[in-house]
Amino acid sequence: MQKTNIQIAREEKGLSRAEFSRIFEIPYRTAQDWELNNSKCPIYLEKLILEKLEKIEKKHLTYHILCFGTKPLSPVGSGQN
After folding, report:
1. I need a surface site. Which of 10, 19, 39, 50 has the fewest CB within 10 A?
2. Separation in Å, CA 23 to CA 1, 10, 77
3. What b-and-e string marks burial along 27-54, b requiring 16 or more CB atoms within 10 Å of the CB?
4. Which of 40, 54, 44, 45 is nearest to 8 (CA)?
5. Can you list the residues of the chain whose pLDDT is less than 70?
6. What pLDDT was estimated at residue 37?
7. How many structural domains compose the chain?
8. Range of 19's domain?
């Protein structure tokens, strides 16, 4: 089975599917369905997710989730803090 663009980007950042789901506030089962090709992520949403994944670093996300229980308001390193 061919990996989706989101799965490839998620794995490149070292994020588990559960971490990805928490960060993007997407139900775990939805992310799983996208990656297993049981359903398709809308193209506009895929583009937004890939753009955000490109800008973030896992170490910052993990720290933020552990400390605050949620994702940062703006991408780490984007200059929008």
Report:
1. 39
2. 25, 11, 16
3. eeeebeebbeeeeebeeeebeebeebbe
4. 54
5. 58-81
6. 93
7. 1
8. 5-68
